Amino acid sequence: MTPILALLRVSIRQALPVRRSVMLAILETAPGLIYLFATTNRTADAAFQGAVEIGAGTYFALVLPGVSIVIAAGVLGNERRDLTLSFIALRPIPRVGIAATKLTAAVTAAFALNLVGAVVLGGSHAIRSGNWSFFGALAAGALVATIAYASVYVPLGFMTDRAVLIGVAYLLIFENGIAALLTGLAALSPWRVGISVFADLADGARLILDSSTAPLSLGRALVTTAIYVAVSIGITTRLLRKRDLA
Amino acid sequence: MSDYSSAIEREVPTNPSPLDPAFVPSPTIEVVNASKWFGQKVAVSNLSCSFGPGVTGILGPNGAGKTTLLRMISGLTDVSGGSVKVLGVNPRKDYHVFGSTSLVPDEDAVYAEMTGRRLVSYAAQLANTDASEAAIDDAITSVAMEAAAHRSIGGYSKGMRQRIKVAAALVTKPEVLILDEPLNGTDPVQRAHLIDLFHDLGDAGRTVIVSSHVLEEVERVSSRVIAIVDGRLAAAGSVEAIRAAMNDKPYVVRIATDRPRELGAALFSSDAVLSVEAGQGSLVVRTTDIVALGRLTPALASALPARLSGFKPEDESLESVFRYLVERS
Amino acid sequence: MTDSQGAVYDLGYVPYDGERLGRSGARRTVFWDGIRRVLGIRRKARRKVLPWALIVIAVIPAVVVVGIGFFVPGEITDAVGVAQSHANFFVLGGTVAMIFTALSAPELLVPDRREGVLSILSSRPLTSTDYLMARLASLVAIVASFLLLPQVVLYVGLAGTHPDGLFRGLVQDAGDLPKILIVTAIYVVAFVPLGFVVASLSNRKAVATIVYIALMIGLTSLAEAIVQNNVFTGGRWVALVAPINTSDAANNFVFGTENPESLLAAANIHPWYGIVALAGFGFVGIAFSVYRYRRLM
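Above: the input entities. Below: the structure tokens describing the complete assembly.
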């Protein structure tokens, strides 16, 4: 097995210890369960509207960011805090390779959990409406949002012990507060990047979501995500090169 | 015999004499005027030395800067001043050199959820070296961890963790092996086994650096010692050579004789003798010139006459050297 | 000194023969250590930023309201009434206290487990229950202070705006004091035990914080969805599982400012049931934490 693959495999496994994964997976089911209960006696149109609103308000705005932040902040951050960073850094692996691999591990692990939420919410909507395409749009949007969050929080988790706290404050104050009012700042809200992809892929979702919630087109969202990834790998690489690793 | 008292006042050499004991003729590691500070705290100050094939012990009290020096050599930490070269390159700039080096850190830098075997395998995979079952078995056997290798590291004792870390370092077959306090937590049998292993590696031409604050360990592990006190190079060379270089520290010699008081009175008149303490069957002499004392003693004993049955310097141990270096700083 | 067999040297060592504080001393030590740890006392400056910022966030609105009351006497009390003011500030204070619990419960419990300190504590005259109760007391003391501080500012401040003077104001509003204490206890019971359960299960502080906040918000959303949509028979009792809603409803009940749009009102459940449910869940939460730590220490 090549060094990169070995690093990827172990990093994913470390990001998903059993007890934590179970706790976070249970959390992921909340939007779907809330949707199921909230749309018990609704028409198909109302059920779709409920799915979009709960998807936006609960899944994309709270659950997905929370899980992604916890996973991403830990892939490098926990190595530094547990003093195992020397084990991977003092290897003949290019720093950019370590940075990209850790980001990939964070995305893979976080998306595995976020997919649980997408399955439960999408599946709940399919039960109500018989329409599975909603799940596809949700999963695609979740993947993009996960990539965006991981891109921000992998280097932040390496830089500071407080990355998750910063993430919670950022989520509650900026993303769900300030950015809701100032759509020009939407690109700085990773979950809005994801939900913009969802809104373009789920027929009729854009009619329900306002421009402050899904402000980007599909193309702009994907370009924004690519920029997030490039900047993240660049910053992480520089940190691995310049910072004392112990 | 180098002059220690003048040595510590000398300019730190940029083109060192090949006879300077801090340097070796064919170095694999060169440390030139290296300094490291963390804010206001200077951990290593203008330190120059080199390491080559064989085993070198780094000795110093707690907080002397040994770990910081090893981190700079291994590439974990950058220098604040000066330079470090490992196999001709700066380890902070060229990651390829990590394929030829291995670090066994002092702290518990292991994954508790992995088995010992898995950790060794992971180390081999990360270094892109032979990760076959045979290679892993070899590494595990070399540290006598066969029985526990299948258990998770979280259940290991401190000594077992140290040994599995050494196995993970050895599986990559490094040319340079850096070990920070590797014998911590090991029992006497494990310690002897590891010391033999380090000697074998040194004899095979690898550069092995072992740091410790336990004098007995350093004495047993290595013949060449680099002593660091307060972040500075305090002494370098073999234990005996360092002792010989300490001109301003009087020798303490125990002379066994049947007439200690008479012989002591006779010796006391010599300028080379600072003090004499007579006991039963022996006397303890402090002298600045052990060679002169060695010539004088049999002559005086013969004249008395007195029978001499022993002449032994009492402070050539590393402990007395170490204590002297620390107190002097 | 002889040079034949051996000698004993008097280096001045004297064994301690002073007072031994015993178990109660150990408990007090753990309690005060918890207070200092959470508030960042005797720690680096950056450890103080978050807790003291939250304290300021909790107190400033009360100061502002009192300030308005001084400039425009009677404005506040005429508009909303004293009781409503206290009840409203408990809702704000409760939110801050919840965030504070999310940050502090892991800070109190996780590091001792991760850094292997529990084994050292076990070698002292301290049982696992003593340790946990002392940590619980630290958190309860601070969270209660969080909730009480703005209430005290409000109580004294509003009394100061009384037309007959401060003393008359204090006497007139003295009936609110036991209510303030009761509601403080209700919020503490609503928030702290769950924080302890989550912190006793997670090995990472950050994960425990996120899971706690998510549980508090998630239980509220779930309960609202089930109750408001009458999902299944008896589903209205799920309203008792939402600590935020239940504590707010109990708060309004105690101050006599009931909100007909609250979740308990929608579920047609009397707030007394809410108070009993909070006490029951709190007891179960603490009992679970004690059980968990008996296995660890």
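Note for the figure: The mean pLDDT of chain C is 86.
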